[in-house]
Amino acid sequence: MRFFAKFSELDSALIPKGVKRCSFQCFLVWIGILHIPLMVGVVATLMCWGLALNVTYLNNNFPFGLWIAADLGVIALGAGAFFTGFLRYIVKIDELKNIVNFAVVVGVICYAAAQGILGVDIGQPLRGWFIFWHANVHSMLTEVAFCITCYFMVLCIEYFPLILENRRIYKFGFPHGVAHHLHETMPTIAAIGVFLSFFHQGSLGGVPGVLYGRPFAFREGFLVWPWTFFLFILSAIACGPCFTILITWITEKFARKRLVKRNVIDILAKISGRMLALYLILKTIDTLYWVKVAGDVGSPFRSFYANQPYGYWVLVMELGILGVIPAIILLSTKARQNENLLILACLLNCAGIFMNRWIMTVQTLAVPVMSFDKFISYHPNWVEYASTLLWLWLGAIFISLTYRYLPIFPQEKELNPY
Amino acid sequence: MKEVHHKGHGNEHHKGHGRTYKYGMVIDLDKCTGCGACMVACMAENNLPFRKDNTNDRLTQNFWMRVYKISNGRPFPDSEICYIPRPCQHCEGYDHHHHTPCVSVCPATATDYSHETGIVSQIYTRCFGCRYCMAACPYHVRVFNWWDPKWPKGMNKYLNPDVSVRMRGVVEKCSFCYHRLQRARNKAYVEGRREVHEDEYQTACTQACPAGAVTFGDLINPKHKVYKLKDSPYAFRLLEKLGTNPKVYYVSTKDWVRKAGKVFLGNEGRG
Fold first, then answer.
1. For chain A, how big is the Rg over CA atoms in Å?
2. Which of A54, A135, A374 sits opposite B146 (nearest CB)?
3. Is residue A142, in this structure, part of any structural domain at all?
4. CATH topology for B10-262?
5. Distances in Å between the alpha carbon of A6 and those of A60, A81, A168, B41?
6. Is residue A252 part of a domain?
7. What are the extents of the domains in chain B?
8. Is the interface score ipTM higher than 0.85?
9. What is the pTM of this model?
């Protein structure tokens, strides 16, 4: 009991001044609850490493499945970090300083998840470093690996000053100085992050776009970059801020208080809406051009949607329900200010991006290319779901710890005086 | 997209510093009976593992040579079937792509297109199993080792010592029995020759085919049988329009077979 009291005392000492947090017991229960599904994910991951990938529903027809789609998806959702940093430090939208820290936290989780999931997905995880050592400069995946690793380091550097700003650490001179200097160099770090992010978001688009043996995914393009390279950058920029808004909203619901002012959220939502609208226009042009080009190589448009579950509804869902509807909501000032509509738009936008990444990877493999190929469908099994969702639970724990001990919401005190 | 690339040019044979070859295959579909001897020979020659009760598992059982059965979809008495043996197509890629679909995507340079032999190789010990090459190949040629390789007790004594067994978690594919080329080259070297004769280097599937449907050789050497066979008016290659530029040719006098092989028809899933 005395031991517990000691920890409780330490916990109180670490909580930022002037803000209220739940009791230590309550926090422990919450973290304990999160560990239940997390353990299921750990077991699934260990099964993949220990028993090989035959424990999944992946097969020779579907070498890519949920893991790759999730990888591409979380990296797009994590784009809120670099884009908010870009708007805050380079475009100089000052209000965004109130959410940029949290965007970095979300970014760290997303990029850690992408690398963690890839570590399970590859057949020989101990050889993962071959991608750097024997790098093939012509492969889009090489570019992705290099840029993601470098950008993850950038995110860690961006997150580091937040740790140093913890009440107990900040009072010492050296960490205080380091945090101060890191804050001063943040525009440069943000610029490096933007540069790296543009490349890896684009390269992820290039991953399916260069597959000229798969007419469903293949796109022509500019120099060595297929059009999907540019579309992936734009779609990530369009959905990243929405994901940051969504996670902020969820955190507010759990914390039972406002953490960020509405005008800050509104700026992100408005920019996200404009980017989404631009993306939808370009995506529509790309789709129309793709119909023509694919037809020229003997793959009529109808053949791509001839087999359920990948019928025409996929197009309607991706571009219409999960594209046009959130774009309209986010572009309308009145709709945006309605919190329920705003959250609905963010949800639809994020789901649309995930669906796009699934289509560009899994549907690409499902569409038969040889005329005598049989259509085969794929759905993930529990091992794939659990090892992917593992990162959701880890992310929740990471946010809980960060929110409890670090001053990540500068407006919290002002919005919740006590 | 460009039309057929390999069609006989003897002068290509002496390009570059050394002698270049373009090993390829011509498969006469009118002769193929679908017996599967090529598949069995390939598995035995290349040490492909198999699992109990896995005969009908086309999704995780690995084949380097796979025989597809196709039909013209017409009712009796017009019904016709055809068997299509499918080894690796050893694609060269056309000029504007400059690459084999699976080779350029590999992030760890674990696969390579040899401009000396025209063979697409796979380095098993360098592959880390990302499977991007599998996604890039429209022919489903590349397969992944989902399990650790195991053979029934005693059968490991019959493994081919010239071919390494592959560990779980890596991708593998047909190599046109490259180890046989190495053996033939060694023999030629010992005998003081620089040229490997046509009959000295033949793949296991070619030799196993009881109907003589598979012919293997150098596509740009006028002395080899494949040189003429590939120029048949009935010759075609799978998915020619995509620009993969494969080195496996098929011959069929049946129009519907040629159509089914060349292009994507668009009526899949409609029975």
1. 22
2. A54
3. yes
4. Alpha-Beta Plaits (3.30.70)
5. 55, 36, 16, 72
6. yes
7. 10-262
8. yes
9. 0.91
pLDDT tens profile A288-342: 988 888 777 777 788 888 888 888 999 999 999 999 999 999 999 999 999 999 9
Cross-chain residue pair B140–A373, CB shorter than 8 Å: yes
Chain B residues close to A57, C-beta within 8 Å: none
**Which residues on chain B are in Cβ contact (under 8 Å) with A379?**
none
**Residue range(s) defining the domain that contains residue A289:** 22-160+190-368+376-406
Residues from chain A that touch B63, judged by Cβ atoms under 8 A, are: none
Contact with chain A for residue B130, Cβ under 8 A: yes
d(Cα A216, Cα A208) in Å, to the nearest integer? 9
**Dihedral sign (CA A392, A393, A397, A398):** negative
Residue A51 lies in a domain: yes
Report the number of secondary-structure helices (H) and strands (E) in chain B.
7, 10
What's the CA gap between A360 and A218, in Å, rounded?
Answer: 10
Q: A53, B146: Cβ pair inside 8 Å?
A: yes
Q: What values do phi and psi take at B186, rounded to 5? A: -60, -45
Residue in chain B closest to A360 (alpha carbons) equals B135
Domain count, chain A: 1
Contact criterion met (CB below 8 Å) for B53 and B229: no
Q: Identify whether A97 is part of a domain.
A: yes
Residue B209, min C-alpha distance to chain A (Å): 22
Q: Hey, how many other C-beta atoms are within 10 angstroms of the C-beta on A334?
A: 8
Whether the CB of B84 is below 8 Å from some CB of chain A: the reply is: yes
Q: Which helix (H) or strand (E) holds A40?
A: helix A24-51
Instruction: For residue A211, give the CATH number of its domain.
Output: 1.20.1630.10
Judge whether A210 is closer than 8 Å to chain B, CB to CB.
yes
Residue A25 C-alpha, separation from nearest chain B C-alpha, in angstroms: 44
Residues of chain B with pLDDT under 70: 1-18, 55-56, 95-98, 263-271
Q: Answer yes or no: are the C-beta atoms of A212 and B243 closer than 8 Å.
A: yes
B267, A303: Cβ pair inside 8 Å?
Answer: yes
Q: Which of A64, A299, A375 sits opposite B264 (nearest CB)?
A: A299
Distance CA A76, CA A79 (A): 5
- Contacting residues of A for B135, CB less than 8 Å apart: 63-64, 208, 211, 214, 361, 364-365
